[in-house]
Amino acid sequence: MEDPLTGHFPSRTLIDEEEEREAQQWAGRYATPPQLKWHEDAQAHLKGQVLPADILIVATSPAACALLERCLQSTSQVVGSLWQPEILQEAPVALRALVEGPAGRDAATQLLYSPRDRTAVALCSSLIPPERAAAWVEGMLSHVEAQHAVVVASLPAREYIGVGDPTQESLQYVLESTAATGSCTHGLPYLPTGNLVSGLPAALMSCCQVQQRAATLLLSVDASPMPDSSCIQAIARALTKLLSSLGAAELAAQARRPDVVSDVCKSTKQAARLSDRAALYL
Questions:
Q1: pTM given for the model
Q2: How far is the C-alpha of 243 from the C-alpha of 253, rounded, in Å?
Q3: Which of 14, 88, 178, 224 is paired with 231 by a 20 to 30 Å CA distance?
Q4: At what angle do helices 62-71 and 229-246 cross, to 10 degrees?
């Protein structure tokens, strides 16, 4: 056994290089498409295996998922589930934890559909790793044929570059693909230059830009990981303006209702308290 003081041990740089080589061996599997299962309620709306819709909304932040789920509670139905298959069963544990992320049906994305607005909503309550985001987006867009894609996401305050203090006020911005520029009259400010969008929102916007699809990103600058009441109320107001400009009147009306927003605020407060208790216990 080597002496811990005089023995030869690999440097951090050497370890990083070895981990990088291991990751490259499995990189080809990142493009594995997600699996989709249509529910029986979806058959009336499908054309073959494709769901036609006017708008596809992809919610990636906890606040957006909670708000849209409550808005669609009485006006939509769950039509499908989309999940990432396991791809790194034989890979090192550290690489699986970093890249694969939540996989299997337990981490599925729920797909809801509102027939009146012809709006499909994907609730991404589980994290989609950046390495697998492009495959997820291609899989979703191949099964949902929408005229306009909307992604509702968040940006940590520490990464925000621009005017305004996210700790003092709620900040919401939009970013549009070329095909969507000028087509909406939402009146929301555009994301200041210099901010970096990554992960699933970036993959969706990039894919729509390349394919000349209309797409809009609604980005909320969050001062804390758990959304508070002021953040949810601000997202609801911004989402109402955006949906109204896209013609989704019924969903916009739901997001405007005070009782809906109040219910979401209460549920997120309760989730934050439970999270604090769990952290204290650990």
A1: 0.85
A2: 9
A3: 178
A4: 60
Q: How many alpha carbons lie under 13 Å from residue 156 in its C-beta half-sphere?
A: 4
Cβ(67)–Cβ(30) under 8 Å? Answer: no
Measured CA to CA, the distance from residue 262 to residue 264 in angstroms comes to 5
Share of residues in the chain with pLDDT > 70 (%): 82
The tens digit of pLDDT for each residue in 180-207 reads 887 778 889 999 999 999 999 999 999 9
Helices (H), the chain: 12-26, 62-71, 93-95, 130-143, 199-210, 229-246, 249-256, 258-281
DSSP 4: T
CA atoms within 13 A on the CB side of 151: 26
Checking if the pLDDT of 282 tops 60, the result is no
Structure confidence at residue 214 as a pLDDT band (50, 70, 90): very high
Q: In this structure, which amino acid lies at residue 187? A: G
pLDDT tens sequence across 59-69:
998 889 999 99
Q: Which residues have C-beta within 8 Å of that of residue 192, sequence separation ≥ 6? A: 161, 162, 163, 173
Q: How many CA atoms lie within 13 A of 210 on its CB side?
A: 9
